[in-house]
Amino acid sequence: xxxxxxxxxxxxRQSDTVEAVIRLCGERDPATLSTAAIAEAINxxxxxxxxxxxxxxxxxxSVARWVAQQLTGRIAATADGHSSPLAGLRAMFLxxxxxxxxxxxxxxxxxxxxxxxxxxxxxxVIMNAMxxxxxxxxxxxxxxxxAGEVRADLDTDAAxxxxxxxxxxxxxxxxxxGDMATAAQAAPRVLDIFLAGIREPQS
Length: 203
What we know:
GO terms for molecular function: DNA-binding transcription factor activity; transcription cis-regulatory region binding. InterPro entries: Homeodomain-like_sf, HTH-type_TetR-like_transc_reg, HTH_TetR, Tet_transcr_reg_TetR-rel_C_sf, TetR_C. By secondary structure, the chain is an all-alpha fold. It has a domain at 57-198: Tetracycline Repressor, domain 2 (Orthogonal Bundle). The chain has 9 helices and no strands. α4 (56-77) packs antiparallel against α5 (85-102).
């Protein structure tokens, strides 16, 4: 039987490194985060760090993929199994805000990458994830429209943009204030305003 322990150790190191980057991005500007600081955070030398990630671009792509998987996988899945499409949208909205509160480095890293002029691998991963995620929101809105839960004339593309914009606004305000808990506190009220604007008027 082959010994897979070296592979397992390497995989764990990679996972630990990605988690450290997300944590550090929550504490400082991602653009200023050096590989030396990352290596120190996980008790490795820079040389040892580069055994797991050939360069910083590769590391950043891995971090972006982790964030993308959270959005398109775990968070998007919270919309499944609910009694109605709008209930699914509510669950997904609150799960997304909860993720931001627990991992403030994620939105900081995403915003930083999206603002870069070059089309890096990390930026591409994030942009693709946002496209998939917005598509999921659109699907739920279309289903809600078919079920008569939202206005028949709803512009679902614009509504999806507004939905994401509300989450991003909560994230930015919380980051600016330095109190991530404010995002979780305000999220249900912000969501209620969004839902009130798209629901089918009661006769």
